[in-house]
Amino acid sequence: MFRRIYIHAAISTLLAFLVLLFSSSIINLNTSNFNGFNSISAKLNFTDYYYSNFYSNNKINKDVVLINIGDIDRATITKLLDKVHSLNPSVIGLDVIFQNRGDSIIDQNLIQTIENCQSIVLPIVPKESISKEIKKPKGSINLESDANGVVKYVQLEGSEHFPSFSQVIAREYSEKSLSNTFKFLEHSVLKEINYFGDHNNFTHYEWSEILDTTPSIDFSNKIVLIGYAGSNWDHKACAEDHYFTPLDVSNNRLNHPSVSGMVIHANAITNFINNNFIKNVPPLLNTLLLAFVAFLINLYYMRYYRASNIPFYLRCRLFQILLTSLVAYLSFLLFDQFRIKTNLSQWIATLAISYDVCMFYILILLYLGNKYNFRSYIYLKAIK
Predict the structure, then answer these.
(1) Does residue 275 contact residue 180 with C-beta atoms inside 8 Å?
(2) CA 110, CA 325: separation in Å to the nearest integer?
(3) Which of 78, 113, 228, 298 is most buried, most CB within 10 Å of its CB?
(4) What is the layout of strands, in order, in the sheet containing 202-206?
(5) Model pTM?
(6) 100-126 tens-digit pLDDT
(7) Where do the structural domains in the chain lie, given as residue ranges?
């Protein structure tokens, strides 16, 4: 008879998952067009909450250098590019789209300067652009965001996808350091960015600082990104080519995006080189682990069930609260130390309903025992 308790615990676990699945479907159906719910869910996202409330980084990445072009024209960009090239960088990433042709002489000088650069990566542009004529490595500068408009992912090269701008730059920088990265990512299309920081966490310059500087600056063995970050680095109200990221999600995040596309590319490049993207636990593994834990919890509830016993109910509720808190703590610890991300919302939701579903199932067993003399382990325990 005691062996049947395992069957009952398994059935109770299955019921909990069915309730969770049904509830999730109803919530998604009823809130798909409700902006208020979407706004709240953006703030409750695991990575958003971690980065905006707990993450702190005072380190400076000196391997990736950022240069803001501000509002300069193509002639000045040509001078800037020529100067940067003379400072011996390993790779130049030119995050600029030259959409329409301008002065033919200026454009020709710009094209010639780009072609003279030994290692430079350009963006893939769908529209008419002078960069289409240049035979240099190119990558997609499209940024992948979640349903709430927060940029979190970088697209990888695949049969139906162009390589990302950051992926091509990292490959140009070091084929050797990327070998293990691509082996690890070979079955993925999107990888979640492990943000190192904003522009203050990278060596960064205004364009004028480079043109006005002496040759004492040396970009040897460095990746130099040239792109737009506002009229200057401190231009906080700039919305052009700026995006929401987990670094700036807070109660007032909807005011304006604060991280430039160039900074996001710099973070992705850092991930490619160091092979430290966020590692999401596969959904199947996450579900199997959760099902096993939920099964053990239900087994505990049924093994020590006492009908109409207030200390038993209090003990179970306390156990539920402590276990949920422990799971949340361990999930944050895994992410903080190893950047391993679990589906925390699924864990908390399952643990939150497991007790009530288990008690509901126990009531069904008691009803069947009283009505149809179904002699389950729980029923026999209750009538003692």
Answers:
(1) yes
(2) 59
(3) 298
(4) 138-139, 120-123, 91-95, 223-227, 61-68, 202-206
(5) 0.84
(6) 776 789 999 999 999 999 999 999 986
(7) 4-32+281-382, 52-280
